[in-house]
Amino acid sequence: MDTTAGEPPGAARARPAPLRPDGPADRNRRRGLTDAAGVAVLGCASAWALVAAAGRPARPEGTLLAVLAVSAGYALGRVLGALLPALAPAAAATTVLALVLAPDGRLTARGGAPPLGYPNADAALLVLAAGAACCAAWTVRDRPRRIALRTAGLGAAAAALALGSAAGCTAGVAVVLWSLTAARLRHRLPALAALGLATALAVGATCAVAAGALPAGPSASLTGRPAQTRADLWHRAVTLAEDHPLRGVGPERFADADGADADPFAAPATGPAAPSPQSAPLQLAAEQGLPGVALLAASFAWLLTALGRSPRPTPVVLTAGATLTALAMLAAVDHVLSYAVVTAGAGFVAGVTTARPLAPERTPPDD
């Protein structure tokens, strides 16, 4: 018999079943560990910026501001994502579009200037707006509002093209198309891993161009005459990273470092030195050494891990992952992460899509 001595016959069946190893308590514990890991990574990034600046006329404030912006955006996204999971990203996307399409004067003192004063940074902000609109589209239930939000996402991509950023327009359209197919991807972890691999390949291609490791044909096609100046900046960043692999030359000291003499391929200076190498990973490699690049990679990996453990529906999670991947690819070839609004927007998108809404969510419809 299946009973214990001294117990009534039905007592064994009345005992509570043991908790499943992947129950709600276990998932909450893993999400808590992910949040703690994010705090540790961002804290180490701030601390390393101070270490790289120690004893030099360096300026770590830019890195500290970027970390603060990501943290603030993420915290705000977590709060608003719990309270208003559909309205918060929709309002953020609408606000960005309004700032871009509003009359002259927007966020700068110069008439006719886009919100951030730099077309590629504005395009990065519009890519985030497209992703936020598509995330909101998966959260609403009725079809007309979903169509309107996805149309707003395409409008953000078109606005990026109007600002002169073909890369930003391509990234925005890719985010919208990925979002449309996200409902057919039933497992989020392989898709997020593929997004991480795509980002690694983009950064690797940038580093290969910077180091001159590509054959003459592909390298010439990637670095035509209009982009040759940028390729020279990338090469100089690689040279500085090779000369100072541990601590770099110091935060915000790329323009001050005397790396041009050590670069046999650098063109003679005809004006003020460029403030950055137009690439986030290469700038960190030159200014904060290999640990700075590792911390940037760890930050991106943490965001993807947080999305993988998010309680939100898989289409919302994968749309946010595609948005952050598109931003990372833009950051690999331009200094868009130097703008605190862009980094705060990235944190906001990640926060909204990793929050636990107060009201239970149903599985979004498959369009």
Written account of the structure:
The model is unreliable at 10-14, 105-111, 220-226 and 258-272 (pLDDT under 50). This protein has helices at residues 11-14, 24-53, 61-83, 87-101, 119-139, 143-162, 166-181, 188-211, 216-222, 228-243, 280-308, 314-333, 340-354. Helices cover 65% and strands 0% of the residues. It is an all-alpha fold and 367 residues long. Helix 4 (87-101) packs antiparallel against helix 5 (119-139), helix 5 (119-139) runs parallel beside helix 13 and helix 8 packs across helix 10.
Structural class: mainly alpha
What share of residues is helical?
55-70%
Strand content: under 5%
Give me the count of strands.
0
Radius of gyration, in Å, reads 23 Å
Average pLDDT: 84
Globally, the shape reads globular
Query: Alpha-carbon distance between the termini?
Result: 54 Å
Would you list the SSEs in sequence order as H and E?
HHHHHHHHHHHHH
Number of helices: 13
Detail the poorly predicted runs. Answer: 10-14, 105-111, 220-226, 258-272
Question: What composes the largest sheet?
Answer: none
Q: Would you summarize the structure shown here?
A:
The protein is mainly alpha-helical and 367 residues long. It has 13 helices and no strands.
Tags for this model:
mainly alpha
List the topology elements.
Elements: H1 11-14, H2 24-53, H3 61-83, H4 87-101, H5 119-139, H6 143-162, H7 166-181, H8 188-211, H9 216-222, H10 228-243, H11 280-308, H12 314-333, H13 340-354
Helix pairs in contact: 2-3, 2-11, 3-13, 4-5, 4-6, 5-6, 5-7, 5-12, 5-13, 6-7, 7-12, 8-10, 8-11, 8-12, 10-11, 11-12, 12-13
